[in-house]
Specification:
By secondary structure, the chain is an alpha/beta fold. The protein has a domain of 149 residues: Immunoglobulin-like (Sandwich), CATH 2.60.40.1240. Helices cover 17% and strands 31% of the residues. The protein contains 2 helices and 11 strands, in the order H-E-E-E-E-E-E-H-E-E-E-E-E. The strands form 2 sheets. Strands 2, 3, 4, 7, 8 and 11 form a 6-stranded mixed β-sheet that branches. A 5-stranded mixed β-sheet has the order 1-10-9-5-6, with no helix packed on it. Helix 1 packs across helix 2.
Length: 214
């Protein structure tokens, strides 16, 4: 538990530091570094609640699969759609590629639903866990510059979703140049069960953004 808490705390600090770094390198008049209520992102790092008796993550759970652009329904509690996965074609860095994946998630339950890009999402690349591909700092910076350039207020999935609310936001990732398949895995009730909603990403399903953003 202590090791897990350390890793989670380090991830939150990394996210906050990355937001600060972006704020420093972006144009000071850019609205992309601030939320709609005017407060800075670095002050809004969200931390989901972790129960004392959290579930063993190695236990098998129910799994559902679909593709980009499709919706998965989890019981009568959560609906999740992977709207699109966007690759930044002009942000290639040596042998790496950068992406954002935009989701719409609806909380159909009667209780708030935790949702954090740091904890509720994972990635498999060519069938293997690829933990280092998610929440990459360079991908974060590129994503904020992209949404600022297209004048979008899209935010990272990083807040509680209230009952009846639909939240649209994104996660960000970096991968090696070559891969055959990606799976973005969303675990709606992380810490409580290991049921997963899995979205299969292929090269053909990508949306490409070809303009410069750096």
């Amino acid at each position: 538990m202590k090791l897990y808490a350390f890793r989670r705390g380090a991830a939150l600090l990394l996210l906050a530091a990355a937001f600060t770094a972006f704020t420093g390198c972006a144009n000071s008049s850019s609205q992309g570094t601030r939320s709609t209520d005017g407060s800075s992102y670095e002050n809004q790092v969200y931390s989901p609640k972790i129960p004392e008796n959290k579930v063993d993550e190695n236990l098998p759970g129910e799994e559902q699969n679909t593709d980009v652009g499709q919706t998965l329904q989890y019981q009568d509690k959560v609906s999740a759609t992977l709207n699109k996965v966007i690759e930044f074609d002009k942000c290639a860095e040596q042998d790496m590629r950068f992406f954002v994946a935009e989701f719409s998630i609806t909380n159909q339950s009667s209780e708030p639903l935790d949702c954090s890009s740091l904890t509720h999402f994972s990635l498999k690349r060519d069938g293997e866990k690829a933990e280092d591909d998610l929440n990459n700092v360079s991908a974060l910076v590129f994503s904020r510059k992209y949404y600022t350039k297209i004048k979008s207020d899209m935010k990272i999935l990083n807040q509680a979703i209230e009952p009846g609310q639909t939240l649209t936001g994104y996660i960000y990732m970096m991968t090696p140049k070559k891969w055959d398949s990606l799976q973005i895995i969303y675990t709606p009730y992380k810490y409580y069960n290991t049921d997963k909603l899995i979205f299969d990403v292929s090269e053909a399903s990508l949306t490409h953004y070809a303009e410069e953003i750096s």
